[in-house]
Amino acid sequence: MSPFPCLRAHQRNIFLTASGISTAGSFAGMTAKGWILMDGTNSPMLLAAHFAALSLPTLLVSGAAGTCTDRFGCERVLVQAQWGLLAAALLGALAIPLMTGTALVTMLLTSTLLVGIASAYELTARNKYCALLIDEPNQLAPYLSSFAVVFNVGKLLGPPIGGWLLVITGPAAALSIDAASYLLPIASLLWLLDPNRSQEQRSVPGKQSTMLYAWHNSSSSLRHVLGFTATLCLVGFFHPGLAPLIADQVLGSDPRDLGVFTSVLAAGSIAGGVVLQRNSQQFCRRPFLTLSGFALITAIAQLGMAQTENTPLAFSLTMTLLIGAGTAGLLSSCNMITQVGSPQVLRGRMAGLSQIAFLGGGGLSGLLAAQMVISTGISTTFATAGGIGLGLALWGFWQKGRTVLEEVRSA
C-alpha cells in the first residue's frame, strides 16, 4: 500500500505525468543519438539501424514480456523494466565522454538496443497495469488513450530539448537527462501508487501461459486487427528511423532543425491522440474503420511529402503534421482495441502482440525505406509508401468496415 493514501484519488494522473516526463527525456536522448549518428556518418542505413535497434527487439522479446506480465504480475515486471531503462540510458550517456568513432557508434546502438528490450517489457506491463488503476471497466479505453496524448506531449517537448542541449551543453547532457527521467516513474511505482492488485488475473504455468494460447483464445477480429496493423506499419511507419535525414532535406542540418521537425511530428501525434481519446468508445466499436481512417491520413500525407520540387515549407510541415497524427492514431488505437477486447488474463500477451505488430513492423519498414532511399531517393520512397498505404486503407474500409468489436466487461 502507498505510504501516501491521500494521493490515491490522483494516482492515474500521477502515473500519466511520470510517464510523460520520462517520455520527454527519452525523446531528448533519441534526438541526441540520431543527430550524433547523422553528423558523424551521414548514413541513412545507420539511422534506420538505430531505429531498428529500438523497435525490432519487440519481435524477439515481446512474447516473453507478455508471458512474464501475465504469469508474474504486471507491477513487478513494470518496476524491473524501468530499472532496465535507466541502466540502458546511462550506458549511452557514459559512452559520449569515453569513446569516439566506431566504438562510440557501437555503444550508442547497444544502448538503444537495450532500451528497446526494456521498453518491450515496460509497455507490455504498463498496458495491463492501467487496468488496476481504474474504478470501472468503461474507464479503461479513455485512460489507455490518454497515454497516447501524454506520450506525444513528451514526444513534442523532448526533441527540442534534445536539440538545444546538443547546441548548448553537448550530447552527454541530453543523454544524462534521458537517464535521469526514468527515476520519476520508478519512484511513483514504488511509493506513490496504490493499484488494486486483487483485480489482476494471472495465467497458470503450462500451455495456458504461452503467446500461442493467447493468440488462439483471442477473438478473430483482434487477430485481424493485429495483422492489419502490422501490414500498415511495414509499409509506412519508417519516419521515426529516417527523421534526421527527412529533417535535413525539409529544414536543414542544424540539430535544432531536427528538433523542430520531430516536434511537428509530435504535434500531429498529439492531435491524433486527442481525437482518439475523445472518441475512444466509438473507435473501439468499429476497429477497422478506425485503423483505416488513420492509415488514410498517413498515406495522403506521404503522397504529399513526395512532392519535393518547389514545395513551400509550410506545405511540407503540414504533411509532416498529418503523418504524425495518422501514425500515432494507428498505433494507439491498435493498442487500445486489443486491450479493451481481451480478457484480463490475456492482456499482457495481447500487449506484446500489439508491440510486435506496430514496432516490429516499423523497424522493418525503416530498413526497407532506407534501402529504397539509397536506391531511388526520398521522394520515390514517400510516393511508394503512400500509394500502397492508400490501397490498404481503402481495402480496410471496403472489406472490414462493418466489423464490430465486442468489449470485454471485466477490467
UniProtKB/TrEMBL annotation:
<feature type="transmembrane region" description="Helical">
    <location>
        <begin position="352"/>
        <end position="374"/>
    </location>
</feature>
<keyword id="KW-0472">Membrane</keyword>
<dbReference type="InterPro" id="IPR010290">
    <property type="entry name" value="TM_effector"/>
</dbReference>
<feature type="transmembrane region" description="Helical">
    <location>
        <begin position="258"/>
        <end position="276"/>
    </location>
</feature>
<protein>
    <submittedName>
        <fullName>Multidrug efflux MFS family transporter</fullName>
    </submittedName>
</protein>
<keyword id="KW-0812">Transmembrane</keyword>
<dbReference type="Pfam" id="PF05977">
    <property type="entry name" value="MFS_3"/>
</dbReference>
<feature type="transmembrane region" description="Helical">
    <location>
        <begin position="288"/>
        <end position="307"/>
    </location>
</feature>
<feature type="transmembrane region" description="Helical">
    <location>
        <begin position="77"/>
        <end position="96"/>
    </location>
</feature>
<feature type="transmembrane region" description="Helical">
    <location>
        <begin position="313"/>
        <end position="331"/>
    </location>
</feature>
<feature type="transmembrane region" description="Helical">
    <location>
        <begin position="140"/>
        <end position="158"/>
    </location>
</feature>
<feature type="transmembrane region" description="Helical">
    <location>
        <begin position="44"/>
        <end position="65"/>
    </location>
</feature>
<feature type="transmembrane region" description="Helical">
    <location>
        <begin position="164"/>
        <end position="193"/>
    </location>
</feature>
<feature type="transmembrane region" description="Helical">
    <location>
        <begin position="225"/>
        <end position="246"/>
    </location>
</feature>
<dbReference type="InterPro" id="IPR036259">
    <property type="entry name" value="MFS_trans_sf"/>
</dbReference>
<keyword id="KW-1133">Transmembrane helix</keyword>
<feature type="transmembrane region" description="Helical">
    <location>
        <begin position="12"/>
        <end position="32"/>
    </location>
</feature>
<dbReference type="GO" id="GO:0005886">
    <property type="term" value="C:plasma membrane"/>
</dbReference>
<keyword id="KW-1003">Cell membrane</keyword>
<feature type="transmembrane region" description="Helical">
    <location>
        <begin position="380"/>
        <end position="398"/>
    </location>
</feature>
<feature type="transmembrane region" description="Helical">
    <location>
        <begin position="102"/>
        <end position="120"/>
    </location>
</feature>
<keyword id="KW-0813">Transport</keyword>
